[in-house]
Design goal:
The longest helix has 50 residues, at 72-121. This protein has helices spanning 5-52, 72-121; strands at 59-63, 66-70. Strands 1-2 form a two-stranded antiparallel sheet. It starts with a helix and ends with a helix. The protein is built from two helices and two strands, in the order H-E-E-H. It has a single domain (15-114), classed as Helix Hairpins (Orthogonal Bundle). A hairpin with a 2-residue loop joins strand 1 and strand 2 (66-70). This is Prefoldin.
């Protein structure tokens, strides 16, 4: 039982569109992961620098276009929270990356099966 050409072309277009969309989303997610890794590294570096500063040293935190006097403990607690948030976002992006890779690979496999099936019928 052969599939009509119109239906086959429609299925091919859908699978190609899904593969193309997944490939684009993969690039975006990989860029987001790289950005979050940079952000995490910057937090680690600033935290290690802050650890070398004596506790009684006045520290200023940037708020918009001004600086506010604060303690090192406040900055460290904020950085710890931000680091946790970045870790959660990286975990979610990793899951999204896995889903998109699976979707892309499945679309590629479906395309290969369709082309092999149509080549076998010719």
């Amino acid at each position: 039982m052969a599939i009509p050409n119109e239906k086959l072309q429609e299925v091919l277009r859908e699978i190609e569109a899904k593969a193309s969309f997944s490939a684009q989303q993969l690039q975006i997610v990989r860029g987001q992961i790289a950005s979050k890794n940079r952000e995490k590294r910057m937090l680690q570096l600033s935290s290690s620098e802050l650890d070398t500063v004596p506790v009684e040293t006045p520290v200023y935190d940037g708020v918009g276009k001004m600086f506010v006097l604060t303690t090192t403990k406040e900055i460290q607690s904020r950085q710890t929270k931000e680091s946790g948030d970045v870790d959660k976002e990286l975990d979610n992006l990793g899951k999204k990356l896995h889903y998109l890779e699976t979707t892309y690979n499945n679309a590629q496999q479906h395309l290969e099966r369709i082309f092999k099936g149509s080549a076998g019928q010719s």
